[in-house]
Amino acid sequence: MNTDKPKILIVDDERFYINVLVELLSDDYHTIVTKNGEEALDRALDLPDLILLDVMMPGMSGYEVCRQLKSDERTSNIPVIFLTIKSELDAEVQGFELGAVDYIVKPISPAIVKARVATHITLNKVLRGLTKQNESLLLEQKKKDEQLRCSQKLEALGKLTGGIAHDFNNILGIVLGYSELLQSKLEDHPKLKKHANQITIAGERGKKITQKLLSFSGRKQSHAEVVNINNLLIEQLHMLEKTLTASIDFILQLESDVWNIFIDKSDLEDAILNMSINAMHAMPGGGELIFRTCNKSLTLKDVDSLNIPSGEYMVLSLIDNGCGMDKKTRDKVFDPFFTTKGSQGTGLGMSQVYGFVGRSSGAIDVFSEPEKGTKITIYFPRNINEKATEKGKDLFSINYMGSETILIVDDEEALRNLLGEILIEQGYHVVYAKSADNAFDILQYGKVDLMISDVIMPGMNGYDLALKAQEKYPDIKIQIMSGFDDNKFKKPEYKTLYKNALKKPVQAESLLSSIRKLLDN
SS3 of 413, please? Predict the structure, then answer.
């Protein structure tokens, strides 16, 4: 046995996964196996280079094992990778807060296991080398490592929410699409139409939940619109009074004729709620929360510390008379996962607010001192190109009929069938494909006027499929449909397709309108 190999402690109560991990890793590492948390804590004193730790075990859970490892100076620096059957947002956040460096989801992918184990062992080896060389360098490296871990947390959440969005938006698309079709056919059955409308309302609520998940990771589709902040605050006041404790007095100090802003209204509502909840926790015995709005023209000197251009801004301030914050707390208030609420907080609220303000081309400033309360000031650029919002039309109130052949490419069968039903009703000839390979088989045997393609599919993604199809069949029109944004698709060659992509769940009229425009061009 080569004891010079890096040591890996495997902690799992399932013999199958122990055997798989030992077989994968034993050529490059010295593997040590334990089946429960108590035994793992004892073997950790041998200081392995890395611990693969199952989350759910009889007796002591993986979370408790990790907590005890990180609280012991002798074992606190050993990197821990959790093994879990299902990856859930709250569970991942809890694991990272306890000090884990990564998550691996069962069933295990050999390539992922090997890559992540090698990465974290190498990273830990580098860190230990720095410790021996220079203490001051170690302190600096720890700071960078914290930033890296913060970035990894954000990336993990982004990937998780992105996956949720894709799958959930497919489901929502089916629910909303069929309820929309039902409503269009139930004009003579008002009671049944009312039931179908309730399905739509529930689906729209689900859509908002997905948008809130995505808003933290920055992958949320932007639905910016012209917003009057005074009207929004008045509308939201009743909800805040019911949500927050009755001991909080809400005071509105709203400047008349305040400038409109162009932002995502849902994100702004979430930001106001998050900041209000923080204010409530800062006033456990009750107090005042003031919402103040005003117009302000900022000079170059005014914006020097805000990192925004000079110009006209609508300013929103939230002012409480709570316990306030010291400088150390104030400096970390926007850090992801930083919370002063202990187990009651996730530390995501203010980082979500910060991300939203940045995406809105605004700036946020915090003033707070212990026992003097907190004032949060947000600057939103004035909207100078207001456009009247077109009122929604009833489904199929405009003639979107056609006779062209349309190919639908999506790995979700129910969604393919829904889209097909909508198109067939308008006179189109529809063919279906569940993958890019399947689509090319169809394209080579018959003329297709337009192709609708999902983005995330087994094998080739929708953008690459579109480019290759256009190269081989120059006359074909392409409509991309996507459940969520991803930076890897923001490539120059995808620019036009990306810009014109429909966002799932898509309404039938939006789909028909886009298709008709493409075909008519």
Answer: helix
Q: Say how many C-beta atoms besides its own lie within 10 A of residue 12's C-beta.
A: 25
Give one DSSP letter per residue of 392-450, joined into a string: P--TT-S------EEEEE-S-HHHHHHHHHHHHHTT-EEEEESSHHHHHHHHTTS--SE
CA–CA dist 478, 465 (Å, integer): 10
Question: What's the length of the chain?
Answer: 521
Mean pLDDT over 435-440 rounds to 93
Q: Which pLDDT tens digit goes with each residue over 300-352?
A: 888 877 878 889 999 999 999 998 988 888 877 777 666 666 555 555 667 77
Q: What's the CATH class of domain 405-520? A: alpha beta
Q: Which of 465, 510, 433 is nearest to 173 (CA)?
A: 510
First-last CA distance in the chain:
71
Domain 225-381 superfamily per CATH: Histidine kinase-like ATPase, C-terminal domain (3.30.565.10)
Return the pLDDT at 144: 58
- Report which of 291, 165, 172 is spatially closest to residue 235, judged by C-alpha positions: 291
Q: What pLDDT shows up at residue 387? A: 42
Cα 54 from Cα 379, distance rounded (Å): 46
Architecture category of domain 7-133 in CATH: 3-Layer(aba) Sandwich (3.40)
Q: Are strands 311-320 and 287-298 parallel, antiparallel or unpaired?
A: antiparallel
pLDDT for residue 293:
95
List of E strands, 374-504: 374-381, 405-409, 429-433, 450-454, 477-482, 502-503
Residue bearing tokens 């400047």: 255
- Give me the mean pLDDT over the 457-462 stretch: 89
Question: Token digits for 35?
Answer: 């089946």
Torsion sign, CA atoms 195, 196, 197, 203: positive
Q: Which is nearest to 20 in space by CA: 104, 92, 97?
A: 104
Q: Is pTM, for the whole model, over 0.85?
A: no
Choose between 399 and 503: higher pLDDT. 503
CB atoms within 10 A of CB 76: 10
Q: Is the peptide bond before 107 cis (omega within 30 degrees of 0)?
A: yes
Query: Rounded to whole angstroms, how far apart are CA atoms 220 and 223?
Result: 9
Q: Which of 139-148, 199-208, 364-373, 458-467 has the lowest mean pLDDT?
A: 139-148
Under 8 Å between Cβ of 81 and 49: no
Q: Check if 7-133 and 225-381 are the same fold.
A: no
Asked whether residue 487 carries a pLDDT value surpassing 70, the answer given is no
User: Letter for the amino acid at 99?
Assistant: G
d(CA 160, CA 147) in angstroms, rounded, equals 20
